[in-house]
Amino acid sequence: MQNLVYTAANHAMASSLIQIESSFGRGFSGLQLIGNASEICRDGKERAKSALESIGITIPAKKIITSLTPAEVKKDGSQFDLPLAISIGELIKGIPKRTDFKPWVYAAELSLNGSLKPVRGVISFAITALAHNLAGIIVAKQNLHELVALEHLSKEHQSFEILGFEHLAEVFKWLEAGSSGASWTISSYKKSHPVSPELITKSKSFDDMVLTEEQKLAALCTATGEHNLLLRGTPGSGKSMFSYRVASLLPNLEKDVHTETLKIHSSYNQNIESSLLSAMPPFRAPHHQSSTSAILGSTSKPGEISMAHGGILFLDEFPEFRRDLIEALREPLETGFVRISRTKANLGWKAKCILLAAANNCPCGWFGSKRKKCRCNITRIKAYTQKLSGPILDRIDIHINMPEPAQSGSKLLFSCQATPDHRQQQSIDLIEKVKQARAFGSERNRQLSARVNSDIESKHIITACKVSSLQLEQILKSRSNINLTNRSLLKMLRVARSLADLESCEAVKAEHLIQALSWQSESAAEQRGDIALGLY
Question: According to the CATH classification, is domain 206-447 in 1.10.10.350?
Answer without folding.
Answer: no
